């Protein structure tokens, strides 16, 4: 059970987590030790272990949770308002922009690779992130169906899962090849599949 922190304590802990996340983005997980984080965040050794009793493993999990929150936050407000075809396109551009800027510096991917998703705590962070992300996409697909802009036969959960898979798969290929095209093409094509058949026909003939 996590200890209750004062407002000052919570702010200090958050400062350490954010500082560690920034350092890891710049240098990579294997190159960052507790001493590096301590120096970068102007934190004493006793203070560091006060907030993260298990040391680096504890801190890395906290950084992973922080980065998972950022995955959603960086897509807002677009992800939370997928209520029209135009807004879906704006969100798609935002996602591609985010991953294009990150390239090899995706802290969450680096941390999950380092910590291993076989660890229950890491797996919970990743699963919670994907479930939240999928929930926004399901709501967005349903909104398109309700407005008549999406194929009425589409299952929102299935469509949302395909879109999320296109993103995560494309992001993995980006990490391996440094090519954003995999993500861009997969996401564009999957979203295009949401459109009503008549709309897709008009687009191709235009």
From TrEMBL:
Domain HTH tetR-type: 16-62
Keyword DNA-binding annotated: yes
Keywords, ordered alphabetically: DNA-binding, Transcription, Transcription regulation
InterPro entries in the record: Homeodomain-like_sf (IPR009057), HTH_TetR (IPR001647), Tet_transcr_reg_TetR-rel_C_sf (IPR036271), TetR_C (IPR011075)
Alphabetized Pfam families for the sequence: TetR_C_13, TetR_N
GO molecular function term, any single one: DNA binding
Gene3D superfamilies named in the record: Tetracycline Repressor, domain 2 (1.10.357.10)
Chain ranges of the Tetracyclin repressor-like C-terminal domain: 103-187
Protein name: TetR/AcrR family transcriptional regulator
Record flagged with keyword Transcription: yes
Species: Kribbella qitaiheensis
């Amino acid at each position: 059970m996590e200890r209750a922190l004062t407002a000052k304590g919570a702010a200090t802990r958050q400062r350490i987590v954010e500082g560690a996340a920034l350092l890891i983005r710049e240098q990579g997980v294997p190159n960052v030790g507790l001493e590096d984080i301590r120096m970068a965040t102007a934190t004493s050794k006793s203070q560091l272990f006060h907030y993260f009793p298990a040391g680096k493993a504890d801190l890395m999990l906290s950084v992973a949770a922080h980065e998972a929150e950022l995955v959603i936050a960086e897509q807002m407000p677009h992800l939370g308002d997928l209520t029209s075809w135009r807004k879906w396109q704006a969100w798609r551009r935002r996602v591609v922009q985010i991953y294009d800027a990150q390239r090899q510096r995706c802290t969450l991917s680096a941390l999950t690779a380092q910590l291993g998703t076989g660890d229950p705590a890491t797996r919970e962070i990743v699963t919670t992130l994907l479930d939240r992300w999928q929930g926004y996409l399901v709501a967005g697909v349903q909104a398109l169906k309700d407005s008549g802009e999406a194929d009425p036969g589409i299952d929102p959960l299935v469509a949302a899962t395909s879109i999320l898979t296109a993103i995560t798969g494309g992001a993995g290929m980006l990490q391996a090849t440094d090519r954003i095209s995999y993500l861009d093409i997969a996401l564009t094509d999957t979203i295009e599949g949401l459109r009503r058949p008549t709309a897709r026909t008009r687009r191709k003939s235009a």
